[in-house]
Amino acid sequence: MKKLNNSNFELLEDIIKNLDFNYDPSHNQTLEKLECYWNETIGNKISKFSKVLEISDDNVLTVICADSFIANELYFEKTRLIGNMNEKAKELGIKIVDIRFDYKKWKERNNEQKI
What is the DSSP secondary-structure string of 33-102? Predict the structure, then answer.
């Protein structure tokens, strides 16, 4: 085996020391509240096929959907959904500016939960 002459390697422990783990329990509570608001907004039938995944720093809500048909139907109602969600999310101090519907991540998330 040939020895490498490159000395630009860093120790793993040095890299780990520099990592910033930003676990924020209040963020998880906010997502849980948004999930409840989402379920209230869209009703029981659709709530089985769509879930709140995340909210970005610029207040874009990402909702995952079971398939493209549901994502498309929700997209047509996006303006109304944003308005209803903003009424409920006032108490959290959040003003949702957009909702992104993603049906591809639904399968990824369900596969992760099975493992």
Answer: HHHHHHHHHH-HHHHTTEEEEEE-TT-EEEEEESSHHHHHHHHHTHHHHHHHHHHHHGGGT----EEEEE
